[in-house]
């Protein structure tokens, strides 16, 4: 009888431990970030255009759906030379929490990395278009390319940058009050820097 009671007590203890473990796992699953930054490995360099996606890339696309994959791309310029397009690394939770509260305000962690996705998508779309031969660009796209070229100057040489209109066009993101706050967070974390002028023109250049 004593042995049976002891077994019952042991079973109750095990049940409580399993319930506590289940609660912890549920909490971890609920609070898992949407984006998991890769802080240990450098992003690989891959071609921008391939005939068929690799199995690895297909799996990444399925897992992240519309999330921009953090890989540097290369595009061929009109002269046939490959030009690398930089990307912005995802922000870690530790980095996000290191941003002063008066800068990030009520912004959420996922909002910052969604902005990273939008900018990376914009960079790839913009510089892929600008690298295409003139003969393969429509009149509409040529006007966009011309506008982008006019924003370049001596200060932007060797830089990759985007402006408000680029982000709206290719990143589907509006730089309203919240949008500008998100850009300020990325500047604070040394992902971007501003190159201003002439006039009200503000360029957001990638820090590499």
From TrEMBL:
Keyword Coiled coil (UniProt): yes
Keyword list, A-Z: Coiled coil
Protein family: Belongs to the SKA1 family.
Gene name in the database record: SKA1-L
GO molecular function, one term: microtubule binding
UniProt biased composition (Polar residues): 52-70
Transmembrane region(s): none
The name this protein goes by in its record: SKA complex subunit 1
Gene3D superfamilies: Ska1 microtubule binding domain-like
UniProt-annotated stretches for the region Disordered: 48-76
Record's GO cellular component terms: mitotic spindle; outer kinetochore; spindle microtubule
GO biological process, one term: cell division
Key word Ribosomal protein present: no
